[in-house]
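Customer escalation, tier 2.

The customer says the design service returned an amino acid string that "doesn't look like it belongs to this structure." They asked us to rerun it and document both sides in this ticket. The original structure tokens are below, unchanged.
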């Protein structure tokens, strides 16, 4: 197995799998604003608390969030702010693709009218 292939496999299993659910991405964006406990996250995102807990567990296992106990509460934070930068880049790629698709549709619609 090549070094690149090994690195891509590791990237997929550790990071991409953590990002595979839109709710987990929303959790990361929420934590980018400030550390939150599971109750705060569940309320903020309108999720049942058990669902938020499951997503946080997976994100923690993948190394995307860290946790810190404060009394009886556990607060979660982004492990590396670059993950938000990467997500923002992916969102920009998606926005460009959607804009290009809209332009193609508009062009096709205009061509069919003439």
């Amino acid at each position: 197995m090549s070094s690149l292939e090994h690195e891509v496999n590791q990237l997929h299993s550790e990071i991409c799998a953590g990002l595979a659910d839109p709710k987990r991405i929303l959790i990361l964006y929420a934590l980018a604003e400030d550390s939150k406990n599971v109750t705060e996250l569940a309320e903020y995102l309108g999720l049942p608390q058990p669902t938020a807990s499951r997503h946080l567990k997976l994100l923690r296992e993948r190394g995307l969030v860290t946790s810190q106990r404060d009394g009886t509460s556990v607060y979660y934070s982004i492990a590396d702010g670059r993950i938000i930068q990467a997500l923002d880049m992916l969102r920009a790629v998606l926005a460009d693709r959607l804009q290009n698709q809209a332009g193609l549709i508009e062009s096709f619609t205009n061509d069919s009218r003439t």
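Tier 2 assessment: The sequence is consistent with the input. The chain has a mean pLDDT of 91. DSSP finds five helices and three strands in the chain. Sent an explanation to the customer and offered a walkthrough call.
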